[in-house]
Amino acid sequence: MGGETVELRVAMTCEGCSGAVTRILGRLQGVASFDVSLETQKVTVQIADDAALTPEGVLEAVAKAGKQTEKWA
Amino acid sequence: MGGETVELRVAMTCEGCSGAVTRILGRLQGVASFDVSLETQKVTVQIADDAALTPEGVLEAVAKAGKQTEKWA
Fold it and tell me: Which residue intervals define the domain HMA in the entry (chains A, B) (predicted)?
């Protein structure tokens, strides 16, 4: 498990929105690194190699922000 | 339990932010009604009379949006 890169499309309309997603990912266990782009609406998450976190788990955590969230591709 | 009115101060900077809080409250079990004001930064939640939901539970659910959340008063 772990090691995957997850790409999501998240509806974010201001820096408050992207900041909320940033805070959620910052406290999510198993995230090695991440990038949140308000401009492209793209959220990229690198799962740590030995993490129990799954791509679905990442999507669910971000969706709890209350924003429309879906897989990028 | 239940029946309480909960007032929270939530940092929201655009309609994407307030919409996210609205979606979270709309799917939270035990909420009888609620109001989200972007202008005043105030979120008011009426817990249903027979609900197991607590004021702390409301605060935790809203805080999962990733926004600064605290009791209003």
Answer: 3-70
A42 min Cα distance to partner chain B (Å): 16
Give Cβ neighbours of residue A60 (< 8 Å, ≥ 6 apart): none
- Judge whether B64 is closer than 8 Å to chain A, CB to CB: yes
ipTM: 0.75
Backbone angles phi, psi at A32, to 5 degrees: -85, -45
User: How many domains would you assign to chain A?
Assistant: 1
pTM of the model: 0.85
Span B32-70, pLDDT tens digits: 999 999 999 999 999 999 999 999 999 999 998 899 999
> Could you tell me which chain B residue has the CA closest to the CA of A27?
B66
